[in-house]
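Render this sequence as a predicted structure.
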Amino acid sequence: MAADIETFNLRLRRWVLIIGILQVLFGCLVGLVPPTAVPWFRGIVMAHIEFTSNGVLMTVMGLLASELHLPRLLLHLWLWTLLIGTWANGSSGVVAGFTGRSTMLLPTANQGFPPPHGVDNPFATALLLVSGFAIVVALLLTLAGLIRSRDMRAARPG
């Protein structure tokens, strides 16, 4: 049973690392969108920054995956909240950039770079709210898994 969870952790680690690097690459590609291609270029800049930084977060989480001592179900929850949270974050910028409508959750960006079609984009708002919730859950699960890892090592004899 322990070997099964270790094999699962190693596969999970590998896939989270691949997805993290893919997300950084995707963020770089989003950054190649020309300013004239979208109504609100600031949304694309935001998406570029969010995808690349969240890709780095995903990559770091991949490096930590084998250290997490969580039940298999919680490891699945950890993976899905991490995926949903990091991808929804950058996606909100893509949606805002291509629609020209931002969200009230970005007051600083809206003030410095007013979107041409307003700040009432419910889809971009929902993506940011989902992202925030999911990333917080993933981080809490990461902390729990790391703390349990230390506790389990301390409890082992020898």
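Summary. DSSP finds five helices and no strands in the chain. The domain at 2-155 is CATH 1.20.120 (Four Helix Bundle (Hemerythrin (Met), subunit A)).
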